[in-house]
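UDP-glucose 4-epimerase: structure, please.
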Amino acid sequence: MTWLVTGGAGYIGSHVVSALRGARIQPVVIDSLSSGHREFVPADVPFVHGSILDADLVAHTLRNHAVTGVIHLAGFKYAGVSVQEPLLTYEQNVTGTAQLLKAMELTGVDKLVFSSSAATYGTPTGDIVTEATPTNPESPYGESKLIGEWLIRDQGRARDLKHTSLRYFNVVGSGAPELYDTSPHNLFPIVLRALTAGKTPRINGIDYNTPDGTCVRDYVHVADLATSHVAAAQALAAGTPLERVYNLGSGDGLSVRQIMTAMAKVTGIDFEPEIGPRRAGDPDRIVADGTLAARDLNWKMRHSVEQMVASAYDAQRHAITTAG
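Here you go.
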């Protein structure tokens, strides 16, 4: 059994590739390397340098490697930047998904796990998000992910595509030191880069209606996330019925202050975060319920906050050592 991982040279995608190998499933990677890294893909994993916007290339890859199904992670992932770059966001995430579906139809590949986003919910009225929570995305990124889900749903109806979409919030940590988060926008790498550069990390707002006054969000370990992507692929391959959408959530969340405390403890760098004004539109608390995914996709939180930070810190130091 062979599965194509789009965006498999990225932070999350490379962990999915590792999880597939751990499950004795052959991965094939296609990645444009616009944000991914060729060195994140093992030398013995087939790699195609190209974009999912090229349906002919994707179709050739599917045929050439006798692909069983696709785990689709490729796309433009920066919600904040998407506000300034809506056309790029829609091209990569909507047109790209449509072209992927076209290539799958042409080659008869009928199984798809879509890496979606909890950004599809926007700012929900309740503080626990379930799959029944109404979607109301507030950025082109969130909108593009929701449209991607619609495209997949409609293709499923028209062509009997077997599929599921996985929604989640903040992905952190590392499953191996050589695989790390290089995003300029994510909290963990921002804080770790600041600390190792001798700078002080910042908290935006301490007057939220939470136990310690800082925002509470879901933070999920990337290896746990990858495990459930593979579980979804295995279920589809076995013909096991799945829900159309699953939340990969913690159920309780972590506050920004808790993250900062863990950062100081793990790194051994004693610091007191700078306090800035709260950001407009930031809800007090948003976490997702992962009950359905726990039932069907082997989902669970296997890492404590200290373990999440420690794995991210080890990976960052490995990256610095390798670069140096």
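Notes: The two ends are 39 Å apart (CA to CA).
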